[in-house]
Every structure is written in C-alpha cells, then in structure tokens.
Amino acid sequence: QDTDEFILPTGANKTRGRFELAFFTIGGCCMTGAAFGALNGLRLGLKETQNMTWSKPRNVQILNMVTRQGALWANTLGSLALLYSAFGVIIEKTRGAEDDLNTVAAGTLTGMLYKSTGRV
C-alpha cells in the first residue's frame, strides 16, 4: 500500500515548517532543562546537607534545591530555544528559503545575544 495515511489540505506540505517545529523545540528544551536541573539540584542538595542527619529540615532543603535548580534550568533552556526558534522563523520568512543557512544564522544570533548579556 503506497498511499499516505493522512488527508492533507490541497497544497499543504507533508513536512512541518520551522514555525510548527518551534513549539516542539521550546517545550522539549523546557522539559529537558527541568529534568537536568532537578538532577543537578538533587546532587547539590545532597552535597550541601551531607553533614545533617536525615530529617524533615534536610528533606526540605533538598526539595528546595531540586525545585529551584529545575526551574532555573528550564527557564534558561526554554528562553534559548525561544530565541533560536524566533530567529529561525524570522530568517526563514525574510529569506524565503528553507535551508541550513537559516539554522546556522539562528544559532549564531542566539549565541551572540546570550553572550552579550555577560553570562558565562
């Protein structure tokens, strides 16, 4: 069977455009950042409270570190993904072409803007 499974409107592409993929990219980066941040927060929380006995205050400190680091990383990676996606869509619409140059330019502009704020 060589027919397509999905019914597409006349003239529609079979692949997703950069704008449609932007939502997946931003959400995926936020979730990845939250997971990485939570693991990093657990590591930091256990390290900082290693001299304490297992008790409610230690558990609360560890949970606070997990949530704080998870939110920090999710926000950072989500913001970077938003910038990258926005630059990519703007460049694609401006140039009128879908190619690798858009991806390189969007990544370069995102990196330049991120580093211009003085972050390491």
TrEMBL record:
One of its GO terms (molecular function) is protein transmembrane transporter activity. GO terms for cellular component: TIM23 mitochondrial import inner membrane translocase complex. The chain crosses the membrane at residues 21-42, 72-91. Pfam families: Tim17. It is found in: Membrane. GO terms for biological process: protein import into mitochondrial matrix. Keywords: Membrane, Transmembrane, Transmembrane helix. InterPro entries: Tim23-like (IPR045238). It is a multi-pass membrane protein. PANTHER family: MITOCHONDRIAL IMPORT INNER MEMBRANE TRANSLOCASE SUBUNIT TIM23 (PTHR15371:SF39), TIM23 (PTHR15371). This is TIM23 translocase.
